[in-house]
Amino acid sequence: MVTVAEAKRRITENTIALSTEVKTVQEASGYVLAKDVLATFSLPSFRQSSMDGYAVLHTDITNENISLPVVSESKAGGTSKLSLEPGTAIRIFTGAPVPAGATAVIMQERTSVENGVVMIKEFPVAENLNVRNVGQQIREGDIALSAASYLSAGAIGFLTGLNVQEVEVFRKPKIGILVTGDELVKTGEELGDGQVYESNSAMLVAALTKEGINDVEVFYAQDDLTSTINSLELLAIRNDVVIATGGVSVGDYDYVGKALESIEAETIFYKVRQKPGKPLLFAKTKGNHFYALPGNPASSLVCFYEYVLPALRLMSGRNDNFLPSFKLPISHAYSFNGERDEFLKASVSNAQVTSLEGQESFALRSFAVANALIYLPVTQQNVYAGDLVEVHLLPL
Ligand SMILES: Nc1nc2c(c(=O)[nH]1)N[C@H]1C(S)=C(S)[C@@H](COP(=O)(O)OP(=O)(O)OC[C@H]3O[C@@H](n4cnc5c(N)ncnc54)[C@H](O)[C@@H]3O)O[C@H]1N2
Ligand code: MOO
After folding, report:
1. Same structural domain for residues 264 and 180?
2. How far apart are the CA of 247 and the centre of ligand 1, in A?
3. Does pLDDT of 366 surpass 90?
4. Rg (the chain; Cα; Å)
5. How far is 103 from 128, CA to CA, in rounded Å?
6. Which of 123, 191, 193, 352 has the most neighbouring CB atoms within 10 Å?
7. pLDDT of 254 above 90
8. Nearest to 268 by CA among 8, 35, 54
């Protein structure tokens, strides 16, 4: 049995990024850059107005009621060849080229116009007022986004504005899910005696999809050694990571551990000092990583978020791989006994956290409405309302 911190350390130590691939920028959303991307030109590439108003020479505005003739117009998409003579103004719009010779834009709310003459009601006017200068955002040749950057919607927009069309990113892992348990029935079928609907695979596929991991296949094995070995082997050939659920405890029909031994996977750890999710197993062979999650649905999902997801993110090149973690005051007292750290399904709102009713490892009802987990180490077995506790935010 290892501690939570040791289990996380071993996952980090044993996991590296996968190979890279080239994707269009649009397809690369949610991926991680494998190489720096340089700006091939400056942004803005020309001096732009950031307001609708009048382009002027700022030194022409020497008092509060200067009047200037409006001699021409610069609109967005229009030519940047216009130039401003001292003592005149040019009508201009947001995003339009600032004419040569103009050093400021007066927003139109600070002006009044009559008979082609604009009265400027702003004084003094600073140089570059409402002007976006060339390279103000980024200069040609600079690193626009460095390797290991996560491609968020903001990043996709930024790169597209720089006319970047393709990027090299780390590929995401292919996942095989192995469901074990003879008591499990697919939804839609009738439940027999002692049977339950199989829900872990749907839950894990949903969590993987949320992470942008779509190359996922699900196999079902009978509770026997040969079937478990065969399924593990087949899934391993076709995927990078195999995630098994169920059959990893000490019962007579728990075959996942034995099957992993048979295929000579090296156990990196088995059992973590935590509740729920104690029987978590992580093993690897030359080409694959294997996570055997406990069958209890809430245990499975806690282990997925705390260990498997961070590992899959590392494989995808992402270094900020664990759930975002911070301390928040808990809204109520809570205590527990025993020697295992606890993860509690919880709800964060109004800058505090509340653990939810129904923390048992078979129960998903609380998970269904949780947006966070509270992590309480055994050193923090009695907390009082207002105490700071560690909160891990779930990806919703
Ligand atoms: N003698 C001991 N018994 C158990 C121990 C122990 O240390 N000693 N650990 C307990 C803990 S903690 C956990 S967690 C479970 C884990 O057991 P398994 O991983 O072997 O899971 P199963 O026995 O196959 O199933 C547990 C539970 O979850 C339901 N289940 C399983 N798979 C699914 C699925 N795909 N969809 C929905 N529900 C599923 C299953 O029906 C069981 O109710 O072991 C304890 N026992
Ligand atoms: O570790 Mo088990 O997940 O407590 O029920």
Report:
1. yes
2. 7
3. yes
4. 30
5. 5
6. 352
7. no
8. 8
Measured in Å, residue 381 CA sits from the centre of ligand 2 at 18
> Based on the structure, what is the number of domains in the chain?
4
Q: Examine residue 151 and state whether it is found in any structural domain, yes or no.
A: yes
Three-class DSSP category at 204: helix
CA of 276 to the centre of ligand 1 (A): 11
Task: Mark which of 113, 148, 170 sits at the end of a domain.
Answer: 170
Residues 25 and 158 both lie in one domain: yes
- Which ligand has an atom closest to residue 336 CA? 2
Whole-number pLDDT of residue 252: 86
- Is the confidence metric ipTM above 0.85 for this complex? yes
Residue type for position 84: L
- 204 within 8 A of 302, measured Cβ to Cβ: no
Whether 125 and 156 share a structural domain: no
3-state per-residue secondary structure call for 89-124: EEEECCCCECCECCCEEEEHHHEEEECCEEEECCCC
Pocket of ligand 2 (CB under 6 A): 275-278, 294, 296, 299, 361
Pairwise CA distance, residues 137 & 248, whole Å: 53
Ligand nearest to the CA of residue 186, numbered in listed order? 1
Q: How confident is the model at residue 79 (pLDDT cuts 50, 70, 90)?
A: confident
CATH of the domain at 372: 2.40.340.10
User: Which residue among 282, 315, 348 closes a domain?
Assistant: 315
- Ligand 2 pocket test target in 1, 281, 299 with most atoms within 8 Å of CB: 299
Q: Give 107-158 pLDDT, tens digit per residue.
A: 999 999 999 999 999 999 999 999 999 999 999 999 999 999 999 999 999 9
Within-domain flag for 348: yes
Residue nearest to atom 8 of ligand 1 (CA): 250
Q: Which residues constitute the domain of residue 298?
A: 4-18+172-315
Q: Which ligand is nearest to the CA of 257?
A: 1
Do 291 and 183 share a structural domain? yes
Same domain, 82 and 95: yes
Query: What CATH number should be reported for the domain holding residue 152?
Result: 3.90.105.10
The residue whose C-alpha atom lies closest to atom 4 belonging to ligand 2 is: 276
Q: Residues lining ligand 1, judged by CB closer than 6 Å?
A: 179, 181, 183-184, 196, 198-200, 245-251, 254, 276, 278-279, 294-297, 299, 361-362
DSSP letters of 70-81? EEEEE-TTS-S-
Residues 26 and 86 in one domain: no
Q: Is residue 320 part of a domain?
A: no
From the CA of 272, how far away is ligand 1's center (Å)?
A: 15
